[in-house]
């Protein structure tokens, strides 16, 4: 190999023994079949129980993704209380509980309470002993009702509105100006309170 002109001297490393480092994936079809059989075995083992546990609908994190709704870790104690489900009972009927999560909005809380109520309405709890059903067990026609193991779908991320005309009030509303005014009011709130307190104190001293 010859070199000409003022170029970089090559230091090519061609003896890498790359054959021993190639990552093959010949077991992909076998793994696929094995996973499928494992899912079938798990479904058969669960009997008539749902295939997955019920989890809350939460907003994804950060401004970039918070328009999406995904499954969270577990329901809060406040959501369970409002839906009328005990935390120990919830674990027994396939509802995940997360004691650390907090509700930051009424809308999110109401959404998950409705989710719990819908699940509870569809739930059929088969008694261990049909002659002596316990409290909370299903009885009568519920036991012979058709069952489904499909999970409860997540709600839509936003409610679609029908097209309508823009009102005059909406036309007159100045969104940017309102935001700036509110921001300025929040920024100067402390100084305003100090000024008002000072003024009230001066007036009180004058009356004396």
Order of helices and strands: HEHEHHHHHH
**Mean pLDDT over the residues:** 88
Computed Rg? 32 Å
Query: Could you estimate the helical fraction of the residues in percent?
Result: 40-55%
Oligomer category: single chain
Strand residue percentage? under 5%
Name its key features.
208 residues, mainly alpha, 43% helix
Question: What report would you give on this structure?
Answer:
This protein has about 210 residues and is mainly α. It is built from 8 helices and 2 strands. The longest helix has 19 residues. The chain is flat. The N and C termini lie far apart (about 105 Å).
Quick structural overview:
With 208 residues, this protein is mainly alpha-helical. The chain has helices at 28-46, 62-65, 77-83, 87-92, 106-122, 168-172, 175-187, 189-207; strands at residues 57-59, 69-71. It contains eight helices and two strands, in the order αβαβαααααα.
Topology:
Layout: H1 28-46, E1 57-59, H2 62-65, E2 69-71, H3 77-83, H4 87-92, H5 106-122, H6 168-172, H7 175-187, H8 189-207
Antiparallel strand pairs: 1-2
Helix pairs in contact: 3-5
